[in-house]
Amino acid sequence: MKEDGKLRKTYQFKRVYNHGNSVADRILVLYSLANNKSQRRIGYSVSKKIGKAVTRNRVKRLFREVYRHNNSQLVSGTDIVLIARKPIVDASYHQIENSFNKLCHKAKIVKE
Question: Can you tell me the distance from the alpha carbon of 94 to that of 10, in angstroms, rounded to the nearest whole number?
Fold first, then answer.
């Protein structure tokens, strides 16, 4: 099976939650955990508390776009999970990107 750089299974998310480090701010939470692969994998979690399906899908699209623009700055061999918080509904793309970059620096998963 081809690895595509995404966390999909519940056990993958649970491993990151239980053994990884978390950093958070007002609009999102970032969990990170070193893996034994040379590849970086990412997963997104957007709860029904955020809103209806249209809103949740918009947040996931924003997460994917922020990650796409900034993934070259991140270290490889890391599992990352992004969790949305309620204020993300009113946040702009730039606010989400700034939050993501700040949390990546805080979690020390940015290349030197």
Answer: 30
Name beta bridge partners: 25.
none
Determine whether 80 is exposed, middle or buried from the number of CB atoms within 10 Å of its CB (0-12, 13-18, 19+).
buried
Task: Say how far apart CA 83 and CA 45 lie, in whole Å.
Answer: 5
Class of domain 10-107: alpha beta
Q: List, run by run, the mean pLDDT of 10-residue segments along the chain (112 residues).
A: 80 96 97 92 96 97 96 94 97 97 96 84
Helix (H) or strand (E) holding 15: helix 10-19
pTM over 0.90: yes
Domain boundaries, the chain: 10-107
